[in-house]
Amino acid sequence: MSVIAVDGVSKRFGAAVAVENVSLDIGDGEFVALLGPSGCGKTTLLRMIAGLEQPDQGRVRIGGVDMTTAPPYLRPVNMMFQSYALFPHMTVAENVAFGLKHDRIDADAQRARVSEALALLEMTAYADRKPHQLSGGQQQRVALARCLAKRPKALLLDEPLAALDKGLRERTQLELMALRRRLGIAFIVVTHDQDEAMTMATRVAIMDKGRILQSASPQDLYAAPASRAVAAFFGDVNLWDGVVTAQGVDCAALGLTLPVPCGLPAGTNVAVVLRPEQLDFNPDDEIAVGGHVEEVIYRGAVSTVLVRTPTGGLIRIVRPNLGTVPPVGERVTVGWRRAAVLVLP
Amino acid sequence: MRRIVLIAGLAFLYLPPAVVALYSFNASRLVTVWTGVSTQWYGELLNDPQIMRAAGLSLAIATAAATLATILGTAAGLALARFGRFRGRAALTGLIAAPLVMPEIITGLSLLLLFVAMQQLLGFPGRGIGTIVIAHATLGLAYVTVVVQARAAAQDRAIEEAAADLGAPPARVFWAVTLPMLRPAVVAGWLLAFVLSFDDLVVASFVAGPQSTTLPMVVFSAIRLGVSPKINALATLLMLATAVVIGIAVLLARRTAPGNSAGPTAAIR
Description:
The complex is a heterodimer of chains A (345) and B (269). With 345 residues, chain A is of the alpha+beta class.
């Protein structure tokens, strides 16, 4: 059964549409990432689940109960804010205990919950500090502990890693994943970072201009994007314009007709998508195009090679650095299998 | 050169009160003739029942007016900082800012006309302590509003949202989170309103009744009969008290806005 069911929700701010007719079901224990550029409505959607915004249309159900108009303090979900929003005049322990005052449990149980939450986030030693005495990473742990002490049905996280430096960000990603597995509750995270979404989430909902373009596992999104926008936004990609012909798809950038069937009528404009790691410098492959190496971008384990075709198209190829990367200026032939080509409307 | 200008500026600002303070320790009965050091005027001051009664009254009025101004000003400051563009926002801003820019004599006169008209129509309020408190609260309200609004606008709204998200109904969010976070600004506003009321002569003169002579009014009427060294002593004590209260207000305001050494009180200077 879904913990959170968002059904046909829309939200406008004045003339600007923030969220438009969005539906999303989130199951128990899922780790869902709302991914999109800034202003795509992902934070507004999260805030509507938390009750901090009221949708203009549609319903929000939490744990099977319609909570569309319920105020935030009556909803069994908790949110970790981007700024962490700790209470500056309270100690760490008081921050964590704050939310328990309204749960009908006695003082001993409250204390136990606070210690349990602090222990879970390894912040027990800091219980008597004030937030301004903590580092950014520690403040985040307090914010998480404060949410989890409430034992929410789902944890909402607004850009949880944006304020952390790179090393801490990776560690926190792994910890959030471990935490979610341990607690078994749903996590919904808002992010603009596709690597973050790919790493942590069991499901990614890609948003743009207030709509969900596609919602699927990271693997499925990468291998089978539903549209040009999803392909362009999620993962490294070659994306060219093409026109369907009787023989296949005519791709002007490559100067050839790709012999791939797509079932669309001739003359239809389509997007041709090729993932860079599917390409190789192999002239004997099913499809091959000549060109010269314009740039090689070294990235440690792999290099990204940019090959310019005679018709002016640019091909991105990602190869492991095992001595097979050609130097800049060399004439090469790029080859790939027919099955690697995705044709999207 | 810069040093000379600085010293000249400071002298311009602080020499007159320094002279008053100095002469308060003068042994002579004549204010302008220095004959020796004495603290006798302070003693006489404390034994003057009229001045002590007026001082007590001024303290009581200032406390009541500052408290009233703080309650209303905090509400107004929060409304202006939080409610976005509501109907009547411009009118409210203008009304609250009016006492800041209006000549005190106009404020005093208009309040007097209002109170007289009200008394004729409603039989209420009779001029006296009550009307002074109301008038001073109106003045102080402006200062409290500005200080609280600056603080509230700088506050991260997410903190109150987090409180609501954690299960606190609106009333608890206000008492447990919003107000404690505004506390330095509220206290600073109260102190400013207190000083404003305690120092005020013009408005109080208009709205006072026969039995409600405040300390500045006593000082003013005493000076009209010739400057007494006793008044110098009183002025020195008043300056000292005012400086301490303003100092506390500025310190609190500074703590209010870390990283902004001027603090919200700079906005009203």
